[in-house]
Amino acid sequence: MKTTLINKDSRMGRPSASGIFRLAQCPGSWLAESKCPPEEESEDAATGTYLHDCMEHNRTPDDPEQAELIEFCFQVEGELVENIFDEEASNLTIIREERMFAMDEDGNVIFSGKPDKVYYSPLKDIALILDYKFGRLAVDPVEQNRQLAALAVLLRYKLGSCPSTIFAGIIQPYVSRRKPQLVKFLPEHLDAAERYLRKIIADAEVPNAPLRPDEKACRYCRAKTACPAVKMALVNVTSGDLVASWEQWSPEKRREAYDLAQLAKKWAASVEAKVKADLKAELKIPGLCLTSGKKAFTVTDPAAAFNVLHELFPDRIRAAEFTAVCKVGITELDKLVHSVRKLQGIQTTVDESKKWLRKTLAGCASTKVSEGSVKEIGGGAA
């Protein structure tokens, strides 16, 4: 099985396939973001990076839930490859995490992208592009996903010719455990997609390209906290009497207000983080100070703690009294029970073990249902 080396080239200052959706929604975001410094990687993003690395190097995470995610991805990937390529795997060319570039007639880079994995059969002239998403928001359906279209165009540049057929799909195990849908690109589809992508990028490079605030487009934009269009939109939606206006607003207007509220929350969180950083650096901000952190005493070894206290108060602190003041960490118990069931040879998943545990302990536990939260329907984070 042939495997290409990982290409370490950067984006060379050009748009990337992962950001095409945002450029289409908000052309001005390209120049606005180019003036912003890089942001620190969030905890969720770091988890995604780690899981991508596990997929790339065929490594199993220590965390059982993450290990199951990776196992699921490999299983689905294997089924897709088997269904599409009816030939020996050794005959397939595999491209892992290699950045690809689309060039103009003068050899200048137009945009780039890095598919997570590509399978290509020179014999059948068929390719499969797979993209792993480890976020918890559903992305746009494959037939509407601009990133997949961009990656298909880039693969044509990489191969130097257009495969007769390119299939592309997204595996997002936190969102769905169903077999992923694939979109099928023929050469004429790629011609149309490239014209569309070139226009999006050209529009984004025009000086004073329009800024169009959109919660989904702004979600990962580094310029959102300084964007004048975001500020104006927030002013417009927060002006006037919300209670009186709400009844007059259409459902579409209410959704717009909701999206802007999400932007406002992120802007507020960014402001608070920067204020905290200033105070840590001993910069004076009128009327604000940084409090000292709260101390939290945690018993890390309950068995040892019980032995100590029981020895001191044998008639008053027995097992029943001690466990009555203990709170079971259900997440850790889930992991323990799942690992024990696996060791006993039970074929089970993390989710199945969780359900089994709750059923088994139903007589000595309770379930509380919190108030539901607002969930986005349809495409979410890219």
What does this protein structure show overall?
The protein has 382 residues and is of the alpha/beta class. The chain folds into 3 domains: 2-204, Lambda Exonuclease, Chain A, CATH 3.90.320.10; 225-280, no CATH class; 302-354, no CATH class. Helix content is 45%, strand content 10%. The strands form 2 sheets. It has a 6-stranded mixed beta sheet with strand order 1-2-5-6-7-8, sandwiched between helices. It has a two-stranded antiparallel sheet with strand order 3-4. Helix 5 packs across helix 6, helix 8 (228-238) packs across helix 10 (251-280) and helix 13 crosses helix 14 (350-360).
Number of domains: 3
* Average residue-wise pLDDT: 87
Structural shape: globular
CATH class placement of the largest domain: Alpha Beta
Strand content: 5-15%
CATH topology category name of the largest domain? Lambda Exonuclease, Chain A
How far the N terminus sits from the C terminus, by CA atoms, comes to 31 Å
Major sheet: arrangement of strands: 1-2-5-6-7-8
Share in helix: 40-55%
SSE succession: EHHHHEEEEEHEEHHHHHHHHH
* The CATH architecture of the largest domain: Alpha-Beta Complex
DSSP strand count: 8
Q: Can you summarize the main beta sheet?
A: 6 strands, mixed
Structural class comes to alpha/beta
Which stretches of 5+ consecutive residues score pLDDT under 50?
Answer: 1-9
Radius of gyration: 26 Å
Q: What's the helix count?
A: 14
